[in-house]
Amino acid sequence: MIKILIVSVILLFIFFLIYAILPTILIRRSGRGIIKTIHAPAIALTFDDGPNPEYTPQLLDLLKKYGVKASFFVVGSKVKAYPDIIKRMSQEGHTIGIHHYDHISSWILSPLRLKKQLQMTEQAIKECTNEKVTFYRPPWGSFNCASLYLSKRYKVIMWSHIFGDWKVAKGKNGLLEELLQTTEAGSVLLLHDCGETLGADRLAPRYMLKCLEIYLQEKVNRGTKFITLKEVNF
Ligand SMILES: [Zn+2]
Fold first, then answer.
1. Nearest alpha carbon to residue 212 among 103, 85, 62, 106
2. Which among 155, 181, 190, 229 has the fewest CB atoms less than 10 Å away?
3. pTM to 2 decimal places
């Protein structure tokens, strides 16, 4: 009995390794099929996990104030809950991409369920914007064996800079300095406009927004250009 149990666990681990962990390592190390930087004389600001009814409108106000267009990787179920925020994003010229229908890692999704997550989110976005959905970022940047095949109709956007802004502590200490050090054109910056994800702090976006305001003030004044993904020539 114990023997069967041990063999089952080992087989399960091997399956998980081949189905989920190895594809993620290979894709992220090789960079094949994914985009981490852009060829543009500008920085791309990207925001994951929204829309959030409290923080996303504040973020949109901030971007508007500085005349900056960004890109949002949204969770489909939240798109359904807050369609007006998505409509506003679209009207104000931002790019809207897929971040799964629920914030679930591809590691625990079968190919069929992953396909559904992509389709349902695309449908939810389209209902709000009437725009073609071109971009996809998997939650936690994790892939499975079928990810690139199932998402081949989209451009898979990762990031060049990730800051840990989903933690309040980071927003209070270090985030602003790290943001300000990011000056290279072609960078893709990943931030979060919702703190409801597993492992995140609910209040974290409040501190991210405070840092982002100072960052934008500084950068826009110095002539740094920002670009939304649909303006990039891929
Ligand atoms: Zn996410």
1. 62
2. 181
3. 0.96
Structural tokens at position 22:
């190895």
* CATH number of the domain to which 40 belongs: 3.20.20.370
pLDDT, tens only, 182-223: 879 999 999 999 999 999 999 999 999 999 999 999 999 999
pLDDT tens for residues 128-180? 999 999 999 999 999 999 999 999 999 999 999 999 999 999 999 999 999 99
Residue matched to tokens 């089952």: 8
Instruction: Find the length of the chain.
Output: 234
Residues whose beta carbons lie less than 5 angstroms from ion ligand 1: 48-49, 139
Active site residues: 48, 192
Q: Which residues contact 133 (CB under 8 A, 6 or more apart)?
A: 96, 97, 98, 121, 122, 125, 126, 154
Residue 104 CA to ligand 1 centre (angstroms) = 9
Domain range holding 201? Answer: 2-231
Say how many domains are in the chain. Answer: 1
- Ligand 1 mean position, distance from CA 182 (Å): 21
CA of 49 to the centre of ligand 1 (A): 5
